[in-house]
Design a protein that fits this description.
The chain is built from eight helices and six strands. The chain is an alpha/beta fold. The longest helix is centred in the first third of the chain and has 22 residues, at 3-24. The structure holds adenosine-5'-triphosphate and magnesium ion. Magnesium ion binds at residues 42-43, 131, 162.
């Protein structure tokens, strides 16, 4: 058999497999996605889905836990160019900077109220909960409250959670869990965080 023929047969088999998988996936519902791991790419991937959704005129809500004390390009852009996107930032910065557990807990709870409202809003197609996992890790938020809020959202709504860790119970209720693996990061060889790339 010629290598062209071999290639054609291999591709044919692959296509049959892919078509069968597409035919088998017939559940129409929003998906819950967790982007976790130590590598770079979690928040930027979540914002990639925001952009995708906006491309179809879908309604999007974004809540950023931690973020807000320092600039971040994607949020600044959304605020300026996409006023239809609901955006809320906790705004306390990093917990190792605030060093105040009671204040962080209050800020996290206040931010969760916004997230919870979005998770009950049937008009929202996509809700991003950026860096939410740390609120669970530091116990600023009650794990079951968060998990129930995500699990009981409207069936058509998709949700993206980002951040390292988060725990098994959170992973268990998500439909898609991706771990971004840190192979290397520029920062570790002394390269400064880059505007437009890192923030
Ligand atoms: P990004 O926002 O770039 O998608 P991320 O959401 O995966 O990154 P975070 O832990 O939220 O990662 O941290 C955000 C910032 O930390 C970014 O400036 C990113 O480049 C940097 N960063 C992410 N992973 C690492 C790493 N493994 N080592 C050093 N810096 C990192
Ligand atoms: Mg992030």
């Amino acid at each position: 058999m010629s290598s062209d023929q071999q290639h054609k047969e291999k591709m044919q088999k692959q296509k049959e497999k892919i078509d069968a998988n597409i035919a088998a996936a017939n559940i129409e519902k929003g998906v819950a996605i967790l982007l976790t791991g130590n590598g770079k790419g979690k928040t930027s991937s979540a914002f990639g889905m925001v952009l995708r959704s906006l491309g179809y005129n879908k309604k999007v809500g974004v809540v950023q836990f931690i973020k807000g004390a320092q600039n971040c390009g994607e949020a600044d852009y959304l605020r300026a160019a996409c006023p239809e996107v609901e955006l809320y930032q906790m705004g306390t910065g990093f917990t190792w900077n605030t060093q105040d557990k009671a204040a962080d807990t209050r800020a996290a709870e206040k931010t969760w109220l916004v997230a919870d409202r979005m998770l009950k809003d049937t008009s929202l197609d996509l809700v991003v909960l950026d860096e939410l996992t740390y609120m669970l890790g530091y116990k600023y938020l009650d794990r079951d409250t968060v998990i129930n809020g995500i699990a009981q959202r409207p069936p058509e709504q998709s949700v993206v959670v980002t951040g390292r860790g988060g725990g098994k119970a959170l992973r268990d209720i998500m439909d898609t869990v991706s771990e971004v693996k840190d192979i290397k990061h520029a920062y570790k060889s002394g390269i400064k965080a880059r505007q437009g790339v890192d923030y």
